[in-house]
Write a structure and sequence with these properties.
This protein is an alpha+beta fold and 233 residues long. The chain contains 9 helices and 12 strands.
Amino acid sequence: MSDQSEAPSRREVLAGSTLLGSLSDDQVGELVVNSRMAHAEKGETIWLNGSSVSFFGVVGTGFVKMTTVGPSHQEITTEIMGPGHVFGLLGVIDGTGCPQTAKAITGTWYLKVPKAGILPFYEQNVVLKEQLFKRTTHRLRQAFDLIAHLSVGTVEQRVAAVLLVLTRSFGRDCPDGILLDVPLTRQEIAELAGTTVESTIRIMSRWQKQEWIETQARHILVKDLDRLLEAVR
């Protein structure tokens, strides 16, 4: 059954992207005119590894995971993208296409920005080039860490690795810890960690009793970040 929330405006989605923040008002306006909003249902594939597409995406609402295939042909999550995050831009810029599969974790609205619309702006914008390089380097380091834990780690290490990635990307400081402002179910966390929902519930329940985390509806409060860091080692 489809569960589509109201689509955000194209300008709102572009304004939420820090990576594209160096574009001028006129350039943003041109992208607004030429781009379009698209919706992906939970679990829907936006593009497959090796695809050649004419656009890159900017997440408006919801979450997208980037995946690759491991040595045993299992799906491994390398990155989690949320509101304001750009995905697929590097492949558009260098013409290599899509090195990973993009799949919606939740019902997701995302902006499809045409390749032809961004390339002239990219060539003229030194700041955008520098930001893309820095972001790509940072994301590669995170992806390597995540792949290492999700491909060979124990179930506990994999769940901890997913929570740490979410903390770094979507954590919000609050008096009692770091709030993960990510409305993911235990099933969705289990899928990201490559394990069963039963194992995920058992591990997270134990962490809650140990006061490492606290569950709040579909949100998670990380109360002891150091313990989670130790859990992935």
